[in-house]
What does this fold into?
Amino acid sequence: MTAFRDVVSSAPGGGLIQRLGPEAIPELMRLAADRRWGPEERKWGLLAEVGEIYGLRAEDGELIATATLTRYGDRLGAISMVLVDSRHERRGLGGRMMTHLIDVADGAVLALHATEFGRPLYERLGFVTTHQVTVYTGDYRAPGNAPVSRPASEADLPRIIALDEAAHGAARIRLLTRYFPFATQVRIAEDGRSYAAAWRNTDSTIIGPVVAEDVATAAALIDDVASRVSGPVRLEVSHPELDGLAAERGLGVAFTNVHMVRGGPLPGRRERVFTPVMLAL
It folds into this structure.
């Protein structure tokens, strides 16, 4: 059985679901704006490079629904950016897009982040909640401690890939190789056993991923990265142990969602994953 078949298919109820390339980013941004999401052009660009963006078009060719699958090896993937044009909602298009991604994943374990609005659909499709994620934003008040990390160089990339693979249970080589030049910062702990990074989105700098041996190291790495950021930061926290850090550093809760999986437990040392690259990955 071949994992992650790349197919174009007719969606139940009509319409053709097909793979989209970078040239569709303006249409994807329009669809996002329709749902009052930010434009996030850099984010869409990264997803187009490291993931598989699928779209459903109306008879006149207009893009009316989309969803993204990012594969990590053969047996693990992330689903994200599930969007349906507001003029076509409540017609089952989100379910059709999700069913398509589940089909092309061909039995792989799948993970996603869900709002309360989307959660019932995902539960009907067999996803189960693993934990809550709290998103914090604001101007970060770094304490000015001595750094525990240094800027990573290209020579550190193999080590970072290995650390990431141990934590996630999958070799995310394509993602991390592309993310290295995409990020505004990549830092590795002085002992070489943890790392953190950050990237600039439309209106804030997202700190992630943070992969660390323990909570104290994760907090110190976040301080290191945040102290070098000008303007608002965003933390997408999976560990309740970091909630106190966010509050101490002056961040406020923007929203919460839940992390869900389908097809079995996630592999790897998940207790070492403190923040993701982004909720979409």
About this structure: Helices lie at 25-34, 41-50, 93-105, 119-124, 157-168, 173-182, 215-226, 243-248.
